[in-house]
Structure formats: structure tokens, C-alpha cells
Amino acid sequence: MRVSQLRPHHIEDLYSALVTEGQSGSSIRKIHRALRQSLAWAHRRGYVSIIATDGIELPPLGAREMEPPSSDNVRKVIEYLLAADPDWGTLVAVIAWTGCRRGEVAGLRWEDVDFKQGNLLIRRSVAAVPGGSQVTGTNTGYIRRIAIGPKTMKHLKAHSKRSEARAKSCDARVEASSYIFSPDPAGQRPYNPYTITRTFVNACKEAGVPRMRLHDCDTTPPRRFSRAAQAWAR
Question: Do residue 224 and residue 111 come from a single domain?
Fold first, then answer.
């Protein structure tokens, strides 16, 4: 639709559809602010005669109801990925078994893993931005250390060996500063969070389980996903 044809009822229909899909009122308000700024700019330049976001009814603020995934479905997805692609299986397993956000796991480097003590240092996150991704601080702004179970550690060690072998075959080298999960053999760049979500959604479908929202699973507090999977993970 051309921006000059955009009217308030079009935007209200969009927001209603987002509510039906499970988006929270706060998320829709972020979208609204972005639209409002863009349309105000277009109005100042004479591209539109009205600012279509003015005067529309916004959905009420409130917590979005989330359906915590069952431990059986979590297990099926992780086991499917571990068999189909161990790298991706390990990534999703770390999210599930630690409760970390997808961006925090994407930002993990090998220097953040303490194999002796069995823990991870969460000190950065990867955010999706137009045209790619950007490394930032954690969502809370705090650095924290998370203990991980022996099963998680086992998969991380196996992933480390695969990463080193893959890098060697490409005449590259995995450094302590390399990203643990990376599309690059040397681990020089992290995965985009959107890629992680897309892979997870596809895995749910291929594993034959109901679609689960990865963002709902790692939202804190509470960490529903990790609680559902911790007993099995250990």
C-alpha cells in the first residue's frame, strides 16, 4: 500500500491482528511509535496529507498470556536437532537448559565457558538491527554467571571439538574470543537472533510438535522453558 493511501483503520486492523497473534500491548506501542515518527516525517515533507496514526485506538497494556511448553515437546525438538544438526541442537539446548535469551546465547564466546567449574559467563547480547546484527550489553545491563549441568557441558565439549575440526579444515583457527555459535568456521561473527528463531520454529514443525515461541520460552521472570527441561537436561 502506498503511504499516501494509509488510513487510521488500516493501522487499527494491523494492531488487532498483532493482538490475535499474541503480541503484548507494550510491543504494539513500540511499533506505534516507529510508525508515528515515520509518518510525521512524511507529513513534514509533504508526502502524506494526514498522519494516519493520530487518533487511533491502541490495545490496552498488559501481560501477554504465555503457554509454557511441555518438557516432552522441548525434549523432542532438542533431540531432533541434535540428530539433524548437532551445532544447532547444542545452541537450542543451551537456551532451554539455562533460560538465557537467544541474543545472550548468540553472544557467547569460548572464553565465557568455564569447563572446570561448569558455568557460563553472560556478559553480552546480540541484537538484530536493519541489515544485520549488533553486539550489545545484556538485556538487564548486568553480567552474571550461570551454572550448567553435566549434560549441557557434554554437548558444549562435543561442539568445541567439532568447531576446531571445522576450522582446521578451512585453514582457520578457533580462538578464545571466537563466538561459540557462528556461521563462520573461525567464529568471527555471531548468528543473527532472527536466524535462531527461524531455525527453532522450523525444528518444531519438523519434529512434529506444536509451534513454540522461543521468546516466550526464555522470557524472565519466570524462566518457563528451563524449568520444563532442567530435570531431563541433568
Answer: yes
Of 65, 81, 104, the one marking the end of a domain is 65
Q: Which of 37, 65, 93 is the last residue of a domain?
A: 65
Number of compact structural domains in the chain: 2
Angle formed by the axes of helices 86-98 and 150-169, nearest 10°: 150
User: Which grid cell is 160?
Assistant: 568445541
Taking 70 as the threshold, does the pLDDT of residue 217 lie above it? no
Cα gap 9→183, rounded to integer Å = 42
pLDDT at 220 over 60: no
Average of per-residue pLDDT values in the chain: 85
How confident is the model over 108-165, as pLDDT tens digits?
999 999 999 999 999 999 988 878 889 988 866 789 999 988 999 999 999 999 999 9
Q: What is the mean pLDDT of residues 42-61?
A: 85
**Binning pLDDT at 50, 70 and 90, where does residue 9 land?**
confident
Asked whether the bond before 86 is cis by omega within 30 degrees of 0, the reply is no
Return the DSSP state at 177.
T
Does residue 174 sit in the same domain as residue 193? yes
Same domain, 82 and 185: yes
Residues 6+ apart with CB under 8 A from 145: 119, 120, 121, 122
Beta-carbon contacts of residue 206 (< 8 Å; ≥ 6 apart) = 80, 84
- Closest listed residue to residue 196, CA positions, set 138, 136, 125, 110: 125
Q: Which domain holds residue 55?
A: 1-65
User: Could you tell me if 143 and 226 lie in one domain?
Assistant: yes
